[in-house]
Design goal:
alpha/beta, about 270 residues, RNA_MeTrfase_TrmJ/LasT, 11 helices, methyltransferase activity
Length: about 270
């Protein structure tokens, strides 16, 4: 599904760079700026530095004068508004709304359609498969989104944060919403960064135990004439540990060092 992030009247160049980076980490690249404070914000040094590897997103970004231009080709609009409004679209968490949207369980007619803000031939919010595209709208850092911009949206997304301190930095808010949307769409597979573990087989464990038995006898810890249950208990201990081949090599190295040491004087 087409996904667009729209930043309205952004005042800090660094936040534009942070937004580009947030989008790229979640696999999105459609960024539109509406009346940013700096017309050349996409080329400012602070923007480029904060993008940190997401220069392709900046290169693909557009600057427009009106929200209508930014929403061209979009049928479902999500405001991000922390302050409650007297009326307007419903307020939901991103995760709750995305689940409803993708399952087609939203109301057949969204508030935006009821107000006549969307044309008659636009698809309904309740049929996600028919959506032209989804846009996430973020207001300026100081004032957030205007009432008029919120009212034209299908939902007001509210990130469930600390009630006593719920204001997120713009870049952080974009990252959270981008993550939740990517998760709703299926996410990316987790890449395993640790090497594959090779478990030691029974023969290797028994060979190591035999080596240890020699070493323990060498230092006088094990009396061959009265071994009791020391070796069976060690056998159970190492079985529970599920030793790897590398760990077997380490334990054999310890046993070898013990055997090469001088036995204790009697």
């Amino acid at each position: 599904m087409k996904t667009r992030f729209v930043l309205i009247e952004t005042s800090h160049a660094g936040n534009v760079g942070a937004a580009a980076r947030a989008l790229k980490t979640m696999g999105f690249d459609d960024l539109v700026l509406v009346r940013p404070r700096y017309k050349n914000v996409l080329r400012k040094e602070e923007t480029i530095q904060r993008a940190s590897g997401a220069l392709d997103v900046l290169a693909n970004a557009r600057v427009v004068e009106t929200l209508e231009e930014a929403l061209d080709g979009i049928s479902h609009m999500c405001a991000t508004a922390m302050t409650p409004r007297d009326f307007g679209p419903p307020t939901r968490t991103p995760r709750e709304h995305f689940e409803l949207l993708l399952k087609g369980e939203l109301d057949a007619r969204s508030p935006a359609q009821i107000d006549g803000d969307m044309s008659d031939n636009q698809p309904t919010a309740g049929a996600a498969c028919n959506q032209k595209g989804v846009a996430f709208l973020f207001g300026c850092e100081r004032f957030g989104m205007s009432n008029d911009d919120v009212y034209r949206c299908d939902v007001a997304l509210s990130i469930p944060s600390n009630p006593q301190f719920g204001s997120l930095n713009l870049g952080a808010a974009i990252q959270v919403v981008a993550y939740e949307w990517r998760l709703a769409l299926g996410g990316f597979p987790v890449v395993e960064h640790t090497p594959e573990v090779h478990r030691a087989d029974m023969a290797q464990v028994q060979g190591m135990l035999g080596h240890w038995e020699q070493a323990l006898t060498h230092v006088g810890f094990l009396d061959p004439a009265a071994p009791k249950k020391l070796m069976p208990r060690l056998n159970q201990l190492f079985n529970r540990a599920q030793l790897t081949q590398e760990e077997i090599h380490i334990l054999r190295g310890v046993a070898k060092a013990v055997l090469q040491s001088q036995p204790p004087t009697r």
